[in-house]
Design goal:
The complex is a heterodimer of chains A (283) and B (298). Chain A is of the alpha/beta class. Chain A contains 11 helices and 10 strands. In chain A, strand 7, helix 7 and strand 8 form a beta-alpha-beta unit. In chain A, helix 4 packs parallel to helix 6. Chain A is globular, with a radius of gyration of 20 Å. Chain B is built from 12 helices and 10 strands. The radius of gyration of chain B is 20 Å and the shape is globular. In chain B, helix 5 crosses helix 7. Classes of the chains: A alpha/beta (283), B alpha/beta (298). At the A-B interface, helix 7, helix 8 and helix 10 of A face helix 8, helix 9, helix 10 and helix 11 of B.
């Protein structure tokens, strides 16, 4: 048994609630993550699913330490990174990479694609940057000539390939993929996901795949964490979770997916509107 | 009733530079029927909805074809009469309820505006009507909602408000432009159910624009598949899912994720299919002679 790449215990995050901020003085804190325990096993893709406001993105941002937790511990590859400062994190940063939801806003419009991919390489003092950029582009199925282009010259799918190329240029141990296909068409989505699937396997990556789409998670992830209102309601191997979902919320999430199949009973099935008036039920 | 609720025939539209963005689109929506208009981004599905509602951006020019609402051809009416007809017979359920609502006005007046100012109802009648529909979309505290500003409501609530507003004036046709795309799946299901419930109760026809074949399967009776402004396939929804005829439709279905069959779904669209489509479109464009070009410049 190898140690998991991430060991997370009692993770709590509170963020300022700007809607309740008084005109002067600090906004009161609101607890976003309410004490989460989980592991991310090495060299496998873990899905983190939930609806908006469930805290899945906050969880992802805590893993790569864009957010400092207010409680609990995050052990990454044997190092406690929970409260490490920027200096402490610096030697780990190349192993903690991100692919963002919207490549249009995460790629600098005034720099060439080559310069964008080269930036992390140069920052880490690597030589032979040109060849490495070409290699990174090739890995995601883009011709080396794309290095001289700008973001606006690319289609949505190509932009997301660049986002992946940048994240993987340093051969990281961990990649956070936060809703990376939610803005894309289904045909492009299929290309990007099969690409990520292949690269995760080839480069032996550990991936946290954040998504609201359980169908996509079913295909891509070995295990799944289902979140709701800052808590984990259910977690386990993907096959088991889909074959026999334990928590009513998981069942409801699965039942709410409209499959591309004729089913006259689907709309009337399961009383979904009841949930809104129900108090949030604990696990 | 013999005339379809909506009839679009040979509709072509171009950008200022002459590039065709709609390519001889023909489709009909019968009274009380839901027709899904499905395609990927850039397919022109929202543009067709905008053309029906008479709100195409000025950069897009309709160069041929006709649009008729219940047998009345819009192009033959004076602009004012055409707008009046569209206003009386149709309504829109937009994609993003937050941008569709005025952030600085309360929900109540925004919902009654259309009834009072455009259809000339008196205030009390409009108010009663709105409350009835808020009840239909299961809003339990109508007073609070009517007094709220848009930002005080959740996404699902805002979408319910807009659905209620769309049905309030008893339109014959509703254009629903990706009304659930921004919502969580469980909320999406509630909203789809509400739309279908009201649609059946009121006998309203819906042109339902979506990119999601799953949604198409669940709510429509007829479906039109678009690619690059061209109708690729039209069929009864059940027939389309039973045996899709066009390679692109088949590819789109294979690319759509399914949790019930993860390995067979999410297949990238074959390059050959796209090449075939491009060839089809090139041929169509070569053989196309606009019979009523616009004046040439704006």
């Amino acid at each position: 048994m190898t140690e998991p790449l991430f060991k997370v215990r009692g993770l709590k995050v509170a963020l300022p609630d700007m809607t309740r901020k008084p005109p002067f003085g600090r906004a009161p804190l609101v607890e976003i993550l309410k004490g989460l325990d989980f592991d991310l096993p090495r060299r496998s893709v873990t899905g983190i699913v939930g609806e908006s406001g469930s805290g899945k993105s906050t969880l992802g941002r805590s893993l790569v330490r864009l957010i400092e937790p207010t409680g609990g511990t995050i052990i990454f590859d044997g190092t406690d990174i929970t409260h490490l400062g920027e200096q402490g994190l610096a030697p780990l940063r190349h192993d903690l990479q991100m692919i963002f939801q919207d490549p249009m806003s995460s790629l600098n419009p005034r720099r060439t694609i080559g310069a964008i991919i080269a930036a992390p390489l140069k920052h880490n003092g690597l030589t032979n940057v040109g060849a490495r950029v070409a290699e990174a582009l090739e890995r995601v199925g883009l011709p080396p000539a794309f290095a001289t282009r700008y973001r606006h010259e690319l289609s949505g799918g190509q932009r997301q390939r660049v986002g992946i190329a940048r994240a993987l240029a340093l051969s990281p141990k961990f990649v956070l993929a936060d809703e990376i296909v939610s803005g894309l068409d289904v045909s492009t989505q299929a290309q990007i996901l099969t690409l990520l699937e292949r690269l995760a396997d080839e480069m032996e990556l550990t991936v946290a795949f954040i998504s609201h789409d359980l169908s996509v998670v079913r295909r891509l992830c070995k295990q799944v964490i289902v979140m709701r209102m800052g808590e984990i309601v259910e977690a386990g191997p993907t096959d088991t979770l889909f074959a026999a979902p334990q928590h009513p919320y998981t069942r409801e999430l699965i039942a709410a997916i409209p499959l591309p199949e004729i089913d006259p009973d689907w709309l009337a099935s399961t009383p979904v509107e009841e949930r809104e008036i129900q108090a949030p039920s604990g696990a | 009733m013999s005339a379809p609720c909506l009839e679009i025939e040979g509709l072509s539209a171009t950008l200022a530079n002459g590039v065709r963005v709609l390519r001889s689109v023909s489709l009909t929506v019968e009274p009380g029927e839901v027709r899904a208009l499905v395609g990927e981004s850039g397919a022109g599905k929202s543009m067709i909805g905008k053309a029906v509602l008479g709100v195409l951006p000025p950069s897009i020019r309709v160069v041929e074809g006709r649009i008729a609402l219940e047998g009345t051809e819009l192009g033959k009416l004076a602009p004012r009469a055409s707008r009046a007809l569209i206003g009386a017979r149709t309504a829109l359920i937009p994609q993003d309820p937050l941008t569709a609502l005025n952030p600085s006005r309360r929900i109540g007046p925004q919902m009654t505006d259309r009834l009072v100012k455009i259809l000339g109802w008196d205030g009390t009648k409009a108010d009663q009507r709105i409350r009835k529909l808020l009840d239909d979309v299961r809003i339990r505290e109508p007073d609070r909602v009517l007094r709220s500003y848009p930002h005080e409501l959740s996404g699902g609530m805002r979408q319910r408000v807009l659905i209620a507003a769309a049905f309030a004036a008893e339109p014959r046709l509703i254009v629903a432009d990706e009304p659930t795309t921004a919502l969580d799946v469980t909320v999406q299901k509630q909203i789809l159910r509400l739309i279908v419930e009201l649609q059946r109760e009121h006998g309203t026809a819906i042109l339902f624009v979506t990119h999601d074949l799953g949604v198409v399967a669940k709510i429509s009776q007829k479906v039109t598949v678009l690619y690059a402004g061209k109708v690729v396939e039209q069929a009864d929804t059940a027939a389309l899912f039973a045996s899709p005829q066009h390679p692109y439709t088949r590819a789109l279905m294979a690319a759509t994720p399914r949790y019930t069959d993860p390995m067979a779904s999410l297949r990238p669209v074959d390059e050959a299919v796209l090449a075939g489509l491009s060839a089809e479109i090139a041929t169509a464009d070569r053989n196309w002679k606009p019979n009523a070009r616009g004046s040439g410049h704006d």
